[in-house]
Structure formats: structure tokens, C-alpha cells
Known about the structure:
Blueprint: H1 17-38, H2 45-58, E1 62-66, H3 69-79, E2 87-91, H4 97-104, E3 108-112, H5 123-129, E4 134-138, H6 149-159, E5 162-166, E6 174-175, E7 178-179, E8 186-190, E9 204-208, H7 211-220, E10 225-227, E11 230-231, H8 242-251, H9 255-272, E12 287-288, E13 294-297, H10 301-310, H11 340-348, E14 349-352, H12 360-377
Parallel strand pairs: 2-3, 2-4, 4-5, 5-8
Antiparallel strand pairs: 1-9, 6-7, 6-12, 8-9, 10-11, 13-14
Helix pairs in contact: 1-8, 2-8, 3-4, 3-7, 9-12
The structure holds pyridoxal-5'-phosphate (PLP).
Amino acid sequence: VTRQSSPDSTPVPLVDLRAQYRTLREKVLAAIESVLESMQLNLGPNVRAFEQEFASYCGTQYAVGVGSGTEALHLALLAVGVGPGDEVITSAHTFFATVEAILLCGARPVLCDVRDDTLNIDPEQVERRVTPRTRAIIPVHMHGQPAEMDALLDIGRRAGVAVIEDACQAHGARYRGRRAGSLGDAGCFSFYVAKNLGAYGEAGAVVTSNPEIARAVAALRDHGSEERYHHNRPGVNSRLDEIQAAVLRVKLPYLDEWNDARRRLAGRYGQLLAGANVRLPFEHPDCTHVYHHYAVRVADRDRLREHLQAKGIATGIHYPVPLHLQPALASYGWERGTFPNVERAANELLSLPMYAELQDADAQRVAAAVLEFQARDRPGVPHAREVQS
Ligand SMILES: Cc1ncc(COP(=O)(O)O)c(C=O)c1O
């Protein structure tokens, strides 16, 4: 990567898609051109090859390319039999799409609080919410770190329900050595443009080693048909297109390298922010975190965010409104205070710039700006809590 470290006035984006594109331009253009020359535009050779390559990367028997991460979740749930009247347990700290997929099946979302350290679903809470109507559990590997899969798989096994991983933020992450997505009955990925592995449009995949799930998802993504114009059940139109698959095939070989760079950068932020009054992301000893977000926690989040913005440093909030307080879910009657760890996280989380091409000098600028804000804000007065080495 050739980009020079930026002078103090150059904006630091949250994610820099152009910086990555510059490193891949020729290969991407050649791949797109060859799709256009072939005019095989969906479910063709690139989709088939990407499915094999991605399954092999994840360590599963199958991958099925679909139109988005949301559709990956929706179709995986349908494939394991989730339907109206069923309950699906998931975390209240996730992107809205996780719950949307449950609603699209006509099922009822049952939310849980997260662990305060990892911000991943708390297995004890899952256990307490299993009922005879539970049909699936969706652990979400938030911010790029896998949930506690052994405990969750054990709950799933005892209850006789499917465990569908939402790995949309965790491409390449590992749990006890195994890849995210390969641990449950199926794993669902988004290749949204800004993901660790991002397409240049919308795309997603379901990975699994269960041939029935793979077959069901492959039919459901294409109007429920295995043979053209023969429809066994209604599905959707959610085919992965060839141009996106071709782009993903160019990018996949770099994913580990990019994740390593993210992890190095996370380590660097950790050093640089050691003296700041922020709580750094916690890396669970069982996990290899791939830092889709580098989300710190800080008491005075909104003012710090403004300070960074004024210095040209972009940040993100993932996510400002917990799921149980979303207007779209008001009919379920969850009140403020129901999931205290999620609510606290929603007030404190701040995602700092994080992408493989981010330069060390930029990370230094970000950290210096955080330290400057805090020194100016409360000279000599440490915040009472949330300091972690
Ligand atoms: C945790 C999580 N689940 C689901 C999704 C949905 O993926 P998509 O935007 O590709 O539909 C996303 C990403 O956007 C996500 O971060």
C-alpha cells in the first residue's frame, strides 16, 4: 500500500474503500470485463467457483451465494424450518437485519442482553429464554469477534434447535481455531461494501456442512426451484450475481492479510490509547477478533465524536438505538432498562477509523485527538469507571 501518512488536515475516514480499490484495480476491472464478455450474469461460473472457494476458506462443505446478508439469514432460517409461531432467540446488540430476518419468516424474535465485556450474546440469558416454541438461536459475532459458541451449541443441542451464526461482521474470525460460520448448523455472511470482505454492490452467502440446508437455501434463493420453472415451495429472488462473485473472488485471497492488518492496527490503538480514559475492545482468549469495528467505550461519547469530527476524523456508532427500543419492534413491549448492558453500550460505543490500509500516522493522529480532548475536558480528573488496560 503506497498511500502516504496524511498531514494533519487530511480527513481520516472511518473506512476507505478507495484505498483498497487502488491496490486491486487491474484485477477487479479484468474480472468484471470477463463477466461482461461472457454475458453470463447470474448463477454462473464465478458464483460456483466463489461458493467453493468461500466454503473451503470457512472450512465448510458448502457455501451458497445469495443477494445480501439479510437474505442469507432469512433463507437459512427458512431452511431449518423456522416459520410463523416459532421463536428465534438472538442478541439485542446487533444490526437490525438480524431481527428483520426472523420477522421475514413470520417468527417471533426473543431478545437477550449481552456480556458486558465482549458485547456478544450471554449464553445464560439464552438458556433462560428457551421454550417449546424456540426453533433457532442466532448468535451474532459482533464487531468481528465470535460469540461463545461452545455454550450456545450445547444449549441448541439440548433444546433440539438450530444454531444459525450471524457472521456478517466476522469474515475470517476464529473461535477455538475454527472459522466463524463453520461452527453452527449454518453461518450467514454479508458482503456489503464496507465489510472485511466486501463486494461492489450487495451480496451474501450461507455456509454449512449440512447438505439439506445447502440444498434448501440454493432453491429458496431462486424462487424455490431446483429445476427451471418447477417450484417446490415459494422462495425469493436472491441470486448472487456474477459480477459480485467475480469481485469477491479477486478479494478473497487477501482477506487474511487484511484481517492481520486490522489486528495489528487494533494492537497499535491499544498502545496509543493506553493513557486515555476509554475502555478498549476486549478480546476473548478463545477468539481471534477481526475488528470489523474498532469500538471503544467512552463516557462522553457524543462530545468526543464532535471533537474528532472537527479534526477531520470520522467515527461511527454501532449502534445508537438498541433493537428492543426500535420503533419497528414496539409491539413486543420491551421497555427501557430491559437489557442494561446493551443500553449502556449504545450510549458509550464509538467506532474509530479501521481498515487494512490505515496508516500508522493516522492511528497516531486519532489517538492524539482522543487524548487531547480528554486532557482539555477534564484536566487531571480521571473518569470514575470504564478504564481498562
Ligand atoms: C450483524 C449483521 N447482520 C446482518 C447484516 C445484514 O447484511 P446485509 O446488509 O448484507 O443485508 C449486517 C450488515 O449489514 C450485519 O452487520
